[in-house]
Amino acid sequence: MKRIFSGIQPTGEIHLGNYVGAIRNWVELTKDYDCIFCVVDYHAITVEYPTDEFKKRVIETALILIACGLTPDKCKVFVQSNVREHTELTWIFNCVTPIGELERMTQFKDKSKQHRANINMGLMDYPVLQAADILIYKAGFVPVGEDQVQHVELCREVARKFNSRFGELFPEPKALLSIAPKILGVDGAAKMSKTLGNYIGLLEDEKSMWDKLRTAVTDVNRVRRTDKGNPELCNIFTIHKAFSENQTLLNVDRGCRTADIGCIDCKKLLFTNLKSELGPIRERAFSLMKDTDYVIDVVRKGASDCSAIAQSTMTEVRSALGLFT
Ligand code: AQP
């Protein structure tokens, strides 16, 4: 069975972009693949974060993954820093990764602008740690949103460079995109992102969800209710595609283009469908919040299983490098 690896940062509330761009697809993939999912806490420390809240954020992130359906009977879920071999392999990969490749990464450039006061080595090395996360499990596929495709490409290059210098050890993993690989934020401009704050959170209360949805930017050329819109230019329609049936999509598409329906009508339909899909997930999440010991047990067991795989890969790596062990 082919193996899949993917990760999510504990940098804040998990949002609709994370869900339809990644997590929902991860749940589907557990049916056909041996899946490993990771809360990547070492990636999250590349930017400023509140240390006193960090453990809680890590557990909440794992809790949401489980509530979405990534249960221990279907896959492994663990916390990155609990399997120390990831950082050991990162050092080795650093020695085969060209600096020029890291400098041209879009995320590095964006985050460097966002965090001018702390452009640290970790921010630049982020994709190398990601390559180690993936390759330490010899994963063949990496289901991600569009923003991470460039990093998966770099991971392939790291694997190639390692293999050509030290011998064939790693596969070249491929990115797998979901049906909604890029969801914009409620501003309709930037990618929906935890740190940009332009998101709708999976566990937000319904009133706040609706307030954000109601005021979210649609097709900017549709100024008045009577103007005809273009769904292809509307981020709300992109989200609709992830949550609504074909017939609803056809009706919304036609209604928008003819101005038979307004943006609020369209958003109300979406909100109904959002609530019906997210309702059970939210219920499970709220019930897991009363039993965080269960979540901790899941990630501890996940880490123990993953450590065994990671240690075995590192034995091969050390031998390929000719290290004294
Ligand atoms: N807006 C998005 N649309 C589609 N997919 C998305 N993903 C994130 N945002 C969108 C995918 O979700 C997975 C987990 O992402 P992450 O938490 O590791 O990091 P990220 O991509 O940097 O997400 P954020 O919310 O933007 O986090 P911050 O603000 O902390 O940087 C990934 O597969 C990602 O592609």
Poorly predicted spans: none
| Bound ligands, named by name, code or SMILES | adenosine-5'-tetraphosphate
Count of spatially separate domains: 2
Query: Rounded to an integer, what's the Rg over CA atoms?
Result: 21 Å
- Topology, number of strands: 5
Residues in β-strands, percent? 5-15%
Strand order of the largest sheet: 1-2-3
What is the oligomer described by this structure?
Answer: single chain
**What is the highest CATH level, the class of the largest domain?**
Alpha Beta
- Kindly state the percentage of residues in helix: 55-70%
Largest sheet geometry: 3 strands, parallel
Q: How many DSSP helices?
A: 13
CATH level-four homologous superfamily name of the largest domain:
HUPs
CATH topology of the largest domain: Rossmann fold
> Ends: how far apart?
32 Å
Which structural class matches the secondary elements? mainly alpha
What general form does the structure show? globular
